[in-house]
Amino acid sequence: MPPEDDCPLIYGAKPGYAEFALDCLARNRPAIVKSHHLVSRWPATRRWRCKDGTLNSDTLEQDCGHHSVTVADCSRRDFSDHVRLERTLSEVLTLWREGAGQSLYIKDWHLAQAEDSVAPAQKHSRLSSSFYEVLDLVEDDWLNRYYLSTTKDDFRFVYLGQAGTLTPVHRDVYCSYSWSTNIVGRKRWWLFPPAQAQWLRQGSQTIFDYRAIDPTAFPNAHRLCPYIIEQAPGETIFVPSGWYHQVENLDLCLSINHNWLNSYCLTNVCRAIIDKVEEVQLALADVKDLLETRSGDPNWQLQWHEVVQRLVEQDSGWSWTTFWQMVDHNSSIDVQQDPVSPSLRPADSFVAEQIARCRAMYSTRPESQIIAI
C-alpha cells in the first residue's frame, strides 16, 4: 500500500487557504474538495447542466457550437496518446445525438482563451472566465499568470467526453499541479504517488492503460498500487506535482481544468527540466562528440547547449529560458498590483527561499555558464 501520508484528503467543504496549503501544497498531497455550493453558481453549471444533472447540449451548442475543438478518438491509439482530430463542437454534438462518435473526447479546449478575446480587459488580471470562477485556493498560479500576460497561450481547458473515454497514464505538463472540476458527470481517477513512477516506466515507455498492462513490457507493474477516486459532479480534484494519473469518464462528463504551479512546487519543476535536459543530452551524445572533436569551433559548447535547449523546448514546450522568465515575471510583480491576496499565497520569505534553491540547482548545471539567467 502507498504511505498513509500520501492518501488523498476529502474536504466536505472548501477549506481555508492556510489549511489547504499546509495539507496539500506543502506535502504535495492530492485532495477532493466538495465544492458543489460554489460550482452551482457558475454560469457553466446554470447554462450547461440540466436540472436532472445531465448535459444541456442544446444550450452548450447555442453558446459554443461554432468553436473548433481538439478531439481525441479513444478507439485509436497513437503512441502514448490517442489519435487527435479537429472538429467543431456542433459536429461532435450532432454525432452524439445520432448515437455515433461514442469514442470521441474533446480535450484541451481553450474556451476561456476564446472568451478572453471577447472581453480582453480580463486578460492580464484574472484567471477566471465568464463561465466559471477559479477557487481562491488555487489562485496563486504562476504558470497562467505568466502565459496570459506575455503570450497568446494558456493552460485553462474544458474537457467533454462520453462514458468510457479515457486519458492515458501521464504526468502533467512541466511537472505542474492540476485542478479539475466536474460540471456534469463522474470521473474515475487512478493516482500514482511519485515513488511509484519507476514502475510505470520501462526505458522510454510509460504504461498506457493501467487496466490492461502487458507484464512482459512492464515487469514491475505488479508493484503499482494507485489510489482510485471517483469524482462526482460539483467536486474539484487537486492533483499534486509529479503524480502520474489516469482518468476515465464514467458518464458523459463536462469538466473545467487548469494546469498551474507556484513556489510550493517550483523545485519539482526545476528538477523536471534537469531530467529532460539530461535525457536530450544523452540522446544527442554523438552530436556533442562531433561538435567537440570535428567542428574546430572554439564556441562549440555554446552551439551544443543551444541545440539541446531547442530540442528540449520542442519536446516539452519550454526550456530554461522560459522557466526563468516565468519565475522573474512572478517574483517581480509589485505587491500592490498582485491580483492574489497575501492571505492566498505563501510568505515572501518562503517564495524567495524556493527561488534561491532553484538558482542553486541551476548553478551546478554546465549550461548555466552559457545560458545566463
UniProtKB/TrEMBL annotation:
It comes from Mixia osmundae (strain CBS 9802 / IAM 14324 / JCM 22182 / KY 12970). This is JmjC domain-containing protein. One of its GO terms (biological process) is positive regulation of translational termination. GO terms for cellular component: cytoplasm; nucleus. Residues 123-277 form the JmjC domain. SUPFAM superfamilies: Clavaminate synthase-like. One of its GO terms (molecular function) is 2-oxoglutarate-dependent dioxygenase activity. Gene3D superfamilies: Cupin. It comes from the Eukaryota.
